[in-house]
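Researcher: Sequence recovery benchmark, item below. Answer with residues only.
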């Protein structure tokens, strides 16, 4: 089955957010007296921020929420722009839209930053809908909730596929009964994606394009 509706993750799938996210995370940690090299923080790209502060640094939920506020001080000023689309993404999205495919963004990044990034890099016009997380983290940043919201807007939810680079994308897609393609050029390893049950994997933007024209 060639999938008409394609849900895309943002960070690590459409754009490389490493510099902005890791710098903002390191900034937040410094506010709590913790020094960390941004280059050592790539594991925080993808998971909900609260989970990363709690799981990696032992923050309480209350402290993690305070840390997210500090993170956003940096991210809202500089971090959102310290980002770049992966080479070939623009051409892939343009080709898919010309074919009449329905593209929907499904990201756990807050909507305010999501739209700013998508508009800044000229990616918004390719997408029929943009689904992102609320700024207040009221849904816990769970990817399956964002995917569920995206599918409610899709013209053909049964014919949808999710594309993302982390296990959260794969697991969230399967919880919503759709297949998922894991991209290996982002921040999830092959082991992570295969363990999560990725239906297919793509090691480059070009190979992703080929997979989206195959039966999935």
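Model:
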């Amino acid at each position: 089955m060639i999938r008409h509706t394609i849900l895309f993750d943002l960070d690590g799938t459409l754009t490389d957010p490493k510099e902005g996210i890791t710098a903002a995370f390191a900034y937040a940690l410094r506010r709590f007296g913790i020094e960390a090299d941004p280059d050592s923080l790539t594991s925080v790209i993808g998971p909900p921020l609260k989970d990363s502060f709690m799981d990696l640094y032992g923050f309480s939920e209350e402290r993690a929420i305070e840390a997210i506020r500090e993170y956003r001080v940096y991210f809202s000023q500089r971090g959102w722009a310290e980002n770049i689309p992966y080479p070939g993404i623009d051409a892939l999205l343009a080709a898919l839209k010309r074919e009449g495919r329905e593209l929907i963004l499904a990201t756990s990044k807050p909507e305010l930053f999501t739209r700013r990034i998508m508009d800044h890099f000229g990616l918004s016009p390719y997408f029929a809908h943009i689904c992102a997380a609320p700024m207040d983290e009221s849904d816990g940043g769970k990817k399956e909730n964002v995917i569920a919201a995206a599918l409610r807007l899709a013209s053909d939810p049964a014919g949808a596929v999710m594309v993302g680079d982390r296990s959260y994308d794969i697991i969230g897609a399967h919880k919503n009964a759709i297949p998922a393609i894991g991209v290996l050029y982002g921040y999830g390893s092959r082991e992570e994606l295969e363990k999560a049950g990725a239906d297919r994997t793509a090691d480059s933007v070009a190979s992703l394009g080929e997979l989206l024209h195959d039966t999935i």
